[in-house]
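From the shared-data thread, chain only:
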Amino acid sequence: MQLDPQAISWAAPSSGVAGTTATLSATGGGSANPVVFSVGASSGAGVCSVSGTDGTTVDYAKAGSCVVVANQAGGPAGEPLYAAAPTVTKTITVVVPIPAPTPVTPAPVLTGIAPTSGSTAGGTVVTSSGRDLCSPSLVDFGSLPGSAVSVNASCTTLTVVDPPGSGTVVVVVVVTTATGSAAAPIEFSYIAPGYWTVTSNGSVYSFGGAKFYGSLPSIGVVPNAPIVAMADTPDHGGYWLFSADGGVFAFGDARFYGSVPGVLGPEHRSLNKPIVAAEAMANGQGYRLFAADGGVFDFGDAGFVGALPCSAPGAPGGLCVVPNKP
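Structure, as tokens:
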């Protein structure tokens, strides 16, 4: 008797992934006439392979169409094979797996360093800003590596202790990670110990590793009041001169944030007492002037927190105190 196609029940997936296997199971035909599986002639060449009875596996080799044929092996012992018996087929579409994308870590980028200078003895903590600064293997100052490198969680800020330098040397700071290297857009300068002095007319004299960036006579300016104070920028690449009337003069990389005459002049006001001292903010983005009566004048990001004279109505910090001495 021939195999009845409706008597065969078998399970096979409708799709597969190249490089994997699937198990085929069947019922029908009985133990004397087991159902066997084979690859149909209409399958794509080399797409899959299968040979066996119930419980066998089909191997997917490459993408394409795989036709699995279920047929009867033969009759009872002594009877011929049922070669002409009807078959039951299933088509399985085999696809090539799409690999998960490999995470790509961008190369590091440096946008700045601070400070931009340090002592020739080394030991300056330098902060580099940028992005993708994860897991740095090296932070070089010229040909010498820095030490104690650390990075914040977002990989946007890196700190490193610079190595010793030699004389007044300018070097490039380079950060190296597993994905590349990046050079800071601003060079780092090793500066030997030194200082400036300033005279009442704004003449500036530099000594040791301190550099001369200009003076009032060098630009043909005569101050309205004597110069009474001086402050330099965090990287020592510039300085401010402060006059007794609150005038401010910026040189080098020092930025001008305002002056007392610039504030009081439009209001037709003047200082009660002259300016006697001044200081620059640690980040170089502001400064503060002090008058002989304890008045305080803040510019840039210097925040006003109080003064001895009475403040204007509604203004904070005025103690209404008159000092016994300037």
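The two ends are 125 Å apart (CA to CA).
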